[in-house]
Please model this.
Amino acid sequence: MTASSMEELVSLCKRRGFIFQSNDIYGGIKGLYDYGPMGVELKNNLKQAWWKSMVYERDDIEGLDASILSAPVVLKQSGHEDTFTDPLVDCKNCKSRWRADQLIKNTCPECKSDNLTEPRPFNLMFKTAIGPVDDGSSFAYLRPETCQQIFTNFKNIIDSTSRTVPFGIAQIGKAFRNEITPRNFIFRVREFEQMELEFFVKPGSDEEWHKYWVDKRIDWWESQGVNKGNLHAVEVDKIELSHYSKATVDIMYEFPHGKEELEGIANRTDFDLGSHTKNQKDFNINSDVKKNEHSTTKLGVQNLEEKTSYIPYVIEPSAGVDRGLLAILNEAYTVETLDKANTRTVLKLKPHLSPIKAAVIPLKKNNEQIVAKAKAIKNELQNLGMGRVILENSGNIGKNYRRHDEIGTPICITVDFETLDDDSVTIRDRDTMNQERVSSKDLNQFYQKYFH
Ligand code: ATP
Model:
């Protein structure tokens, strides 16, 4: 099941501590959000799942965590200074500003006037000053995508790991875009996170690898609980391709506000390494690269059979963490009718993504023995390292169940008087609401099964 509207998700996220408007107590800032106690866990779990599938479960991908502040020359060479723009129009009537390509019938969404300026390019990159003197001479950009520092680190990584093509470099981190019209909750924001893989391949094998990664990525989203029927692989039209791309497939998802991009998988050819390399003329570069007079490093690799060096092609699956989280919340959101009058809201998250893995609830909050046993169980499960386990020492059992259904906790474990007699606990399953009695000695095993 999915949410029937974005409002339902926004409301749950605020009520249960997933996502808040940033700078809320001062009126908020558009396009910025903060992840609360549940949101930070869910986000970390999603990033961890991506990292596991990219880096730990394969042997051809290395990780990186590079700086956010980027030297202007990096983004000059990448093409962002010249082309990372959206078309901006002003409404002459109400003075609001819009992205021209998102207007319906060229009218202002605010006042419905068609008295608009001609579109002009607006660069989406944020600038900041580096060092104590802010005279405009030493500025840096906040990176608009995480991958450029993957390209600038290409040689460092090859030299330190002895990797040969094909291989990849994975990175998760913040990216910043001064979007003209941020909207649709966390779908389009100005500060967000990306999970990006740059997979370097031999020219000629690029199309095959491109297809491989499109399939892999769709399967991965499915394994995070996104119904395949709500995912659509769409080939981007040639005229809409980014300057670096030979072909791009967008994985579109049916968000509550409409079908939009969740992840883009681009064949970036040899454009990026070709633009950042020293001695461009030494290589047979295919793409239309930026002339480079600043780089200190050659970014080619050896073709051992032909005894030549070449610039690898790169396939880039680039996914948004925030959009991923929105899709996952939407997929998990379920309202169930229990009997004629009652419903319950439950987040049917995959257990590995759940913010809380188990809630341990002492049935009598003022019984020392019961509380001590509950604490001991919490500590033991916590030490298994599957994620956050919580001791619920307030509220009644019904309220606790309702809260944990809504935040997607897979199991609630209740410690009661019987526990003191026979060392067994009651386990309630989130999805079936079935309760079963399990002996404390079998609990670890029982618990771990939920996450495999
Ligand atoms: P869109 O066309 O929706 O603006 P894009 O094609 O510019 O997206 P990419 O440059 O391909 O996006 O970025 C890769 C991924 O980063 C996107 O698929 C998306 O998940 C995420 N992303 C990009 N811009 C934003 C944003 N403003 N807010 C949240 N996530 C974003």
Notes: Residues 145, 177, 179, 188-189, 192, 194, 261-264, 318-320, 322-323 surround adenosine-5'-triphosphate (CB under 6 Å). Residues 255 and 327 are 6 Å apart (CA to CA).
